[in-house]
Specification:
This protein has helices spanning 22-25, 33-40, 54-69, 93-101, 117-130, 154-157, 217-239, 256-266, 277-280, 287-297; strands at residues 5-14, 18-21, 44-47, 78-82, 107-111, 136-143, 163-172, 182-190, 198-200, 213-215, 248-251, 306-313, 317-324. With 325 residues, it is an alpha/beta fold. The protein has 2 domains: 5-172, Thiolase/Chalcone synthase (Peroxisomal Thiolase, Chain A, domain 1, 3-Layer(aba) Sandwich), CATH 3.40.47.10; 182-324, Peroxisomal Thiolase, Chain A, domain 1. The strands form 4 sheets. Strands 1-7-6-4-5 form a 5-stranded mixed β-sheet, sandwiched between helices. It has a 4-stranded mixed β-sheet with strand order 8-13-12-11, with helices on both faces. Strand 12 and strand 13 (317-324) form a beta hairpin. The longest helix is centred in the last third of the chain and has 23 residues, at 217-239. The chain is globular, with a radius of gyration of 18 Å.
Length: 325
């Protein structure tokens, strides 16, 4: 077992200044506030402003996380950006974050796992830290999903928003063997046979375009409830933690009905769930760190408490993480 703990040193988030309420969206799309809220729980979302790219959102969230951690950009050894909306096809958005923050040369790359991207990136950072390769990792979920929404498809375009969340994970000596801190367990999986249910219909090698978001809502809903719930059970079993010990469930913010269905299957009290979808909509890889940051900054999530993250997204890819904050 590793003698290094991977702890959360700081968290930050950023939402673009431009907002779009359901009522405003109804002027552009054949929909209504009641239709959107009843099916998703979303009331408004943020969209990137003119000239604002994914790395800009990521940098703003990262600065807030670094400040909370009491670190400078020069302390960062590893940057991982989880995104499906990179600044460019290449190089990675992570190197632009590195450049804009003023970080020294180090490891920087992107992860593409859609809504599960932040969890995949967290797992990778944990492995780097626990093996002693890096000391401070900046893990970011950042998206400008508004860039490839199909405004003729009201079933999908109303669901997504832009934003970024960042977490500084740091190496720490074990606190006590009986009460370890930081990342206690992670779980990741994917099933490519289900890729047709949630994807973008473009790509550099296939269509030479970015494409638009396509989703089979019914199948995504069914798989999300099943796999997110299973992921929570798996990660708690790996950590030998009982579900009643969980202080906060911080799920991917895709649909309030998915969150409620998962909570019911897991027998989790609704008062222990961080929900931000009403104000943020689905920000894909950014949704968990955005929700985490809100829960910490408003005082609900406190040091020493046990958190479980879980998400499912395009791939279909899913996962979970159990963390002692």
């Amino acid at each position: 077992m590793s003698q290094i703990e991977t702890i959360i040193a700081g968290v930050g988030s950023f939402l673009p200044a431009r907002t779009m309420t359901n009522h405003e969206l109804a002027k552009r799309v054949d929909t209504s506030d009641e239709w959107i809220r009843s099916r998703s729980g979303i009331g408004e979302r943020h969209y990137a402003c003119e000239g604002e790219v994914t790395s800009d959102l990521a940098v703003n969230a990262s600065r807030a996380a670094l400040e909370q951690a009491g670190l400078s950009p020069r302390d960062i050894d590893l940057i991982i950006v989880a995104t499906v909306t990179p600044d460019k096809t290449f190089p990675s958005t992570a190197v632009y974050v590195q450049q804009k923050l003023g970080c020294p040369p180090g490891i920087a790359f992107d992860v593409s796992a859609a809504c599960a991207g932040f969890l995949y990136a967290t797992n990778i950072a944990h492995n780097f830290i626990s093996t002693g390769q890096v000391r401070h990792a900046l893990v970011i979920g950042a998206e400008t999903l508004s860039c490839f929404l199909d405004w003729e498809d009201r079933a999908t375009c109303v669901l997504f928003g832009d934003g970024a969340g960042a977490v500084v994970f740091s190496a720490a000596a074990p606190h006590t063997a009986a009460a370890p801190r930081g990342i206690l367990a992670t779980y990741l999986s994917a099933d490519g046979t289900l890729a047709e249910h949630l994807y973008a219909d473009g790509g550099p090698s296939s269509t030479q375009t970015v494409g638009k978001v396509r989703m089979n809502g019914k199948e995504v809903f069914r798989n999300a409830v099943q796999e997110i719930s299973n992921a929570v059970l798996e990660v708690t079993e790996r950590a030998r933690v009982k579900r009643e010990e969980i202080d906060w469930f911080v799920p991917h913010q895709a649909n309030i009905r998915i969150i409620e269905a998962c909570a019911k299957r897991l027998d989790l009290d609704g008062s222990k769930i961080i929900v931000t979808i009403e104000k943020h909509a689905n920000t894909s890889s950014a949704s968990i760190p955005l929700a985490l940051d809100q829960g910490i900054r408003d005082g609900r999530i406190k040091r020493g408490e046990l958190l479980v993250f879980a998400a499912l997204g395009g791939g279909l890819a899913w996962g979970s993480a159990l963390i002692r904050y």
